[in-house]
C-alpha cells in the first residue's frame, strides 16, 4: 500500500481510451520491462526490441506507451511495430503528423483492423481501432499527450 502507483508519470502519458480488443491484455497500469512483455502483443519480437532500445517502462491504458533509453530507441520501436507482413499492410497515417505510421491487419475480420504508432522524445506509443479514422484520431491525441507531458 506504500508503493506509488505511477512513480514516473507513465500512466499519465497514456491516452485513456476504450479498448476495442475484448481480450484485454492486462490491467491498466505501469509495468517494468518484464511486466511490459506480459501485456505485449508480440513478446517474441519485443523481448529483443526492449533490450535493444532500453525500454524500462511500459504503460497500458487501452493503448501502449513505451519509455525507451532515448529518442532513437523510441523511433526504432515505432518502425519495428509498424512493419508490414503477410497479414499487415500499410495504412494512411494522419495528416499533419509525419512521424506517425499506421498499418492494417487483414488476417481475420474478428480482430482489430488498424494500428498506429508515433514517438516523441524517448517515448513511443501505439493505438488500435477498428476504423482507420478512429485510429488516426487516437494516435494524434496520444501524440499531443506526449508533447504536452513535459
Describe this structure as you would to a colleague.
The protein is α+β, with helices and mostly antiparallel strands and 150 residues long. It has one domain. The chain is built from 5 helices and 7 strands. It has helices at residues 10-13, 33-38, 43-53, 71-81, 132-148, and strands at residues 29-32, 57-60, 64-67, 88-91, 101-105, 114-120, 123-129. The chain has a 7-stranded antiparallel β-sheet. The protein is globular and about 45 Å long. The two termini are 28 Å apart. The model has no long low-confidence stretch (mean pLDDT 90).
Percent of residues in helices comes to 25-40%
Global morphology: globular
Strand numbers in spatial order across the main sheet: 1-2-3-7-6-5-4
Total number of helices: 5
What ranges have pLDDT less than 50 throughout 5 or more consecutive residues?
A: none
The number of strands is 7
Beta-strand percentage? 15-25%
Tell me the span between the first and last alpha carbons.
28 Å
The topology string of helices and strands comes to HEHHEEHEEEEH
Total number of distinct structural domains: 1
Mean pLDDT: 90
Main beta-sheet annotation? 7 strands, antiparallel
- Over all CA atoms, what is the radius of gyration? 14 Å
Task: Output the structural class.
Answer: alpha+beta
